Amino acid sequence: MFSPVSPCTWLYSSFPGSLHTPETECYCCSFDDYKLTTEWLLNQTNHRPKVAVICGSGLGLLADGATNKQTFRYQDIPNFPVSTVPGHEGCLVFGKIEDTSCVFMKGHFHLYEGYSLCQVTFPVRIFKLMGVESVLVTNASGGICPDFKVGDIMIIKDHINLPGFAGQHPLCGPNDERFGIRFPCMSDAYSKDLRTLALDVGSELGCSHFLRSGVYCMVSGPNFETIAEARMLLTLGCDSVGMSMVPEVTVAKHSGLRVLGLTLITNKVSLDYSREEKVNHDEVLEICKMRAELLQKLVTTLIGRCQLQSINRH
Ligand SMILES: O=P(O)(O)O[C@@H]1C[C@H](O)[C@@H](CO)O1
Ligand SMILES: Nc1nc2[nH]cnc2c(=O)[nH]1
After folding, report:
1. How confident is the model over 30-50, as a mean pLDDT?
2. Could you give the C-alpha distances from 197 to 99, 302, 308, 310, in angstroms and in order?
3. pTM of the entire structure?
4. Kind and range of the H or E element at 52?
5. N or C: lower Cβ tally within 10 Å for the chain?
6. Residue 1 resides in a domain
7. 141 within domain boundaries
8. Nearest C-alpha to atom 6 of ligand 1 is from which residue?
9. Record's superkingdom (predicted)?
């Protein structure tokens, strides 16, 4: 019925009525496009998720703690992009953590794959229309802060949207007021309540010694940083750097969703020309594998606790 869609053909083939045409160069999806996918999913599942978990590189295991699971491959969901990066399984899993209905994205999308930011953030608006209230975004990143160690988990308190400075911003284009306002405030993108809860839960689970808090910077990738770029990011006040998360967080915040961002420090970013180690994606996946079980415990405990504390409810 629906064919899988790749980064380059996706918008033209799936959205004949969309605003993105070669003439306009405007990368937007129409409200009807979001509605179609939402209705398709609501017809396929009885789950009505309140929490969405976006799993970054190698972190798909976060869904394993859920019960009553129902899985859809991205390629079978109308209008959904497909994952092209190793470590991103490419499926949507509905399930329950204790009494909370959740949806997990096992794999997400990146600018460097050739997707537009409208495609990268497409699932977030689907979650909003499905009734999700809180989004927990995870990914892998390199540690800039000299104190950070490989395997640390950083609770994101703020971000720098570097692609956004250059006009690569998911909210560019006509604003649809049904999602949010034209000029959203981003000074409180990451919920303080959820950050505090994450710290509390982390301490209960005995992982305070590698739980950090800091500023995350998004770059487009796909190359890892040069030394000069890494030094610039340190000067700008960044604690870690990665290639995802910020577009999803921005769109989630725009539509009034509560956001928690957790980034796993998979490597230390080189700030020194004499450093011999070279970062690579296999190393990133290896560290994700090492920390996946603990992150899963953190995420499932957090979600259970959210429900108890009614943080999901407005
Ligand atoms: O999907 P995330 O942001 O977790 O993946 C990170 C950034 C790149 O996609 C990749 C680099 O190894 O890992
Ligand atoms: N940009 C960037 N992304 C990453 N993802 C995981 N590690 C890194 C890193 O060092 N730099």
Report:
1. 95
2. 18, 7, 11, 12
3. 0.90
4. strand 51-55
5. N
6. no
7. yes
8. 140
9. Eukaryota
Omega into 222 within 30° of 0, i.e. cis?
Answer: yes
Domains contained in the chain, number = 1
The pLDDT tens digits for 252-265 are: 999 999 999 999 99
Range of the domain at 283: 10-308
Rounded to the nearest 10 degrees, what angle do helices 246-254 and 122-130 cross at?
Answer: 30
Q: CB-based burial of residue 280 (10 Å sphere; 0-12 exposed, 13-18 middle, 19+ buried)? A: exposed
284 CA: nearest ligand 1 atom: 12
Q: What is the DSSP letter of 5?
A: B
CATH code of residue 207: 3.40.50.1580
Cβ-proximal residues to 136 (8 Å cutoff; 6+ apart), any chain: 51, 52, 53, 54, 194, 259, 260, 261, 262, 299, 302, 303
What letters, b where the CB count within 10 A reaches 16 and e where it falls short, cover 106-137?
bbbbbbbbebbbbbbbbbbbbbbbbebbbbbb
List pLDDT tens digits, range 280-310: 899 999 999 999 989 989 999 999 887 656 6
Whether residue 5 is contained in a domain is answered as no
Alpha-carbon gap, residue 16 to 31, rounded angstroms: 13
Neighbours of 189 (CB within 10 A): 20
Catalytically active residues, by annotation:
57, 88, 110, 112-113, 140, 243-244, 267, 281
